[in-house]
Amino acid sequence: MRIALFITCVNDLAFPATGIAVTRILRRLGHTVDFPADQTCCGQMHANTGYRAEAMPMVRNYVDVFDSYDAVVVPSGSCTAMIRDQYPRLHPPATSVAARTYELSELLVDVLGVTDVGAEFPETVTYHPTCHGLRMLRLGDRPLTLLRQVRGIQLVELGDAEECCGFGGTFALKNPDVSTAMLTDKCARVRDTGARVLAAADNSCLAHIGGGLDRHRSGVRAMHYADILAGASS
Amino acid sequence: MSHPVAPATGDGRIRTPLPFPTAARAAVADPQLRANLHRATRTIRAKRARVVDEVPDWEALRDAGSAIKADVQRRLPELLEQFEASATAAGATVHWARDAAEACQIVVALTRAAGADEVVKVKSMATQEIELNEALEAAGIAAYETDLAELIVQFGEDTPSHILVPAIHYNRAQIREIFQRRMSDAPADLTDEPAALAEAARAHLRRRFLSARVAVSGANFAVADTGTLVVVESEGNGRMCLTLPETLISVVGVEKLLPTFTDLEVFLQLLPRSSTGERMNPYTSMWTGVTPGDGPQTVHIVLVDNGRSAVLADPVGRPALSCIRCSACLNACPVYERAGGHAYGSVYPGPIGAILSPQLTGVADNASLPYASTLCGACYDVCPVKINIPEILVHLRQQAPHPPAERATMRLLSWVMRNPRRWAAALRLGRVGAGPLGAYRERRTGARTLRRLPWPASAWTRSRDLPLPAPQTFREWWGKQ
């Protein structure tokens, strides 16, 4: 099976560790993963902010770069939702590759049939299901299924977990007051858990929540769940 | 029907006077308002979830509701003509209003013709939309709201902030204060117990019901094959208005049509569970024209367009007309919960308002509303008629006028990101350029964060640290392998 990694623009620039983690997890499971260098961005920011015409070149580039692969793995629920939910409407030739594009937990659990990736992470962790993964991809508890198999991990439940953190792409910039109010509540719920790590399936949402947690010196680390799954058990 | 020009846009209380972010700022800063909204939306949300979960065919009901409404939208002109014929045959008089002003003129003229200088009102979104109370007042006619929450808002010289619970932004102590200040016959020892407040309103309204000669209502549904109008309510004040006065004037948006009487079986299950979280609402009133010797002997129906034809003309935005005004999306929305209804500027707040108001007025006149959402999708999940609100929000954002600086930035980013070589160079530049920014700290795994940036990036750093480009991009790591 030819698996390609779509790193996403935010991960490539600011969170390369998550891409490295996905590569390590898949290699540990005996798969090779390709990184086509001609990839750029899924175009979600443009499309969702009202710049569809400006998003289209990126949509077409994605199809050109990834159409020949059996599966594309994306460490972002939000970008996966853009590709799977919006691409077929925006650009019908994208329908086929969109259907073969998976968020990491979908690839592991549904396509590769793996729930134990042989990880170890001795920390208390709470999990925030990000909106697009939750409601557009219907990831359900796939990421949690993977996290539950991690050696040494102690998972604690997040209150009001399914409520949006207030990031919403350009929403955080266009509506800073409402976004901050939502962030404040989300950070409070995270701190209520007593966990030392907040995990999620999207580094953009995590940059927002983590940025809030850092600002208030909460001591809670925000991490993509792939970063947790990459830690091998000895 | 073909329109030689684009259908007219609507007017009335559907236009936000301030941009949403500006209007929301005051609400976010008001701890009392935040607490009231937090408590109220969570309570209704939990009730709704409980009663929806107990219906085994809820998803099938949603599909049925959505399909019936789509059918109505496909053949609205034909169904409206059928409704007019049925209602007229049953003894009602049907009037057509293109916009808010025309609808108000018709109601004022009918009230004057009935020789009345006051009307009692059933809670109605359509009359709030066309600002009927203001028009009646200007014509020297007193309009008395009889729904408890609408009465509170009217006494408070305020506007509704929620579709179902117009006074959601007040707590009971504030309501007691409003009653004592404005209700001349309020008991001197009025407490802030909900039962005491309701009883005071009941006693106050009783005289109004018995003396009023004209009532004004809206309708939740208008049934084409029978000419029947339906009002769904909790308090019974609506039924008083619908049965006691001699003349009844019902103001109804043209999208309220249902093809057949049996379609009500779907909507009378969807509506109460979605709105109040009840299995069935206490009062469902139906009236079909005039029944001699029983109820109002003169019945007028004012069918209002006010921008709805313009919404209908857009195949992507059109499902907004399926809305049955249950307000489940308001109660599910984390943005509504923080910003409150007034920030949306329209009688239709929350997620449905963010797609309906800009479509009724034209997007340019309500340009901030399509952005009043994180696209989290909670509204779509709870909508009883499956309106894909996030999809329509994105659709309307394409039509919104964009600030020139934003447009330039987005175009530049698109130019860079559409080309792999340019994108790789930009990543390198970003990574290298972030180095001298200096003030970063190593706080998260592999991420460096910045605490303070100048405008416009200050919108981000006001409340959260900003991650900086990593010392090595992913593609650089990959290249070194």
From TrEMBL, chain A:
Residue intervals of the Cysteine-rich domain: 3-84, 125-209
Species per Swiss-Prot/TrEMBL record: Micromonospora violae
Protein name: L-lactate dehydrogenase complex protein LldE
Any single Gene Ontology cellular-component annotation: cytosol
GO molecular function: oxidoreductase activity
Automatic annotation (TrEMBL), chain B:
Domain LUD, residue spans: 80-304
Residue intervals passing through the bilayer: none
Matches recorded under SUPFAM superfamilies: alpha-helical ferredoxin, NagB/RpiA/CoA transferase-like
Record domain 4Fe-4S ferredoxin-type: where: 321-387
Gene Ontology BP terms: lactate metabolic process
The keyword Aminoacyl-tRNA synthetase belongs to this UniProt entry's keyword annotation: no
Gene3D superfamilies reported for this sequence: Alpha-helical ferredoxin, NagB/RpiA/CoA transferase-like
One MF term in the entry's GO annotations: metal ion binding
Keyword terms of this UniProt record: 4Fe-4S, Electron transport, Iron, Iron-sulfur, Metal-binding, Repeat, Transport
Domain spans labelled Lactate utilization protein B C-terminal: 398-480
InterPro entries per record: 4Fe4S_Fe-S-bd (IPR017896), 4Fe4S_Fe_S_CS (IPR017900), FTHF_cligase-like_sf (IPR024185), Helical_ferredxn (IPR009051), LUD_dom (IPR003741), LutB/LldF (IPR004452), LutB_C (IPR024569), NagB/RpiA_transferase-like (IPR037171)
Protein name per its UniProtKB record: L-lactate dehydrogenase complex protein LldF
Organism: Micromonospora violae
